[in-house]
Amino acid sequence: MGYGLNKFVNHVDQNLLCSICAGVLQEAVITPCGHSFCDECLHIWLSRPNTTTCPSCRSDVPPYDVIPVLALRGVVEGLAVHCDNDEHGCKMVLKLEKLPAHLQECEFALIECGACGKSVKRFELPDHHEECEIIKNLVAKHKKTQKEELTIDNLTKQIALLEVDLNKTKTALRESEGDVRRVKRELRELQFQLEVRMSEEQEFDQDWDPEYNYGYSPSSIAQLASLVSRYLLNKPYYVDRNRIFNAIKRCYDYYHGYAGYSQDVHMLLAASYASNWFTENQRSNFDSWLQNLARARFLISS
């Protein structure tokens, strides 16, 4: 169908009008007989039963002989027109070919509200959305639902995080309880060891000389032998292995040649050799000294 004459700003030449719809040619086509029509108008005309003639001169018009008239189409598209929304306030005047693009953005075009169905001008649509009761109700309902969903979601996340923290705390507590039990056990062991060592020191006092002044008197030989024998496999922690070895060596050096004390020296060396107080090298010395004492007794007896 052709364009309405009132759309155009200026007078339109009669040669640009369709003789079927009397409007300005839209998508102009031409028949073999030379008459121009709107493409849609001629198609409808020729679609009627038993109609194969030109509307103007009644000449035969085979459908395949109808062709577009590009020159006429260009002329029509170059005509100045009013915006379709001029009755709503748009005063835009532009070429017909520019009209479709303008209508896509025209601020005076009537847009139907998707909520209430009311048609308002495009530039008034934002204000209408703020005032539309249906939209207000939908927004309020959505916000309420969203708030509830967010609240539930947040609570769920918080609960999950708290459960993780709780499990970590329980694990840490179990580990702490294990550490406490271990520390208590170690403390009891240390207290027991302390009591044992304090007891050892008290028992040790009668034979123990912190200055290691053994070997300077005959009585110190038996005293030292008694000390080593009593703690044969459990050397007191405060006894210095090397200093006690030197004291035993001193006893041997000073008294092994005296018949009256050789037996005490032998007892001291035997106890020292049997104990776990000394190194292998030190025990080797004890063995050598014991052999010397044995040879000396053999020589005396023979």
From TrEMBL:
GO terms for molecular function: zinc ion binding. It comes from Pocillopora damicornis (Cauliflower coral). One of its GO terms (biological process) is regulation of canonical NF-kappaB signal transduction. This is RING-type domain-containing protein. Keywords: Coiled coil, Metal-binding, Zinc, Zinc-finger. SMART domains: RING. Residues 18-58 form the RING-type domain. Transmembrane segments: none annotated. Residues 152-193 form a coiled coil.
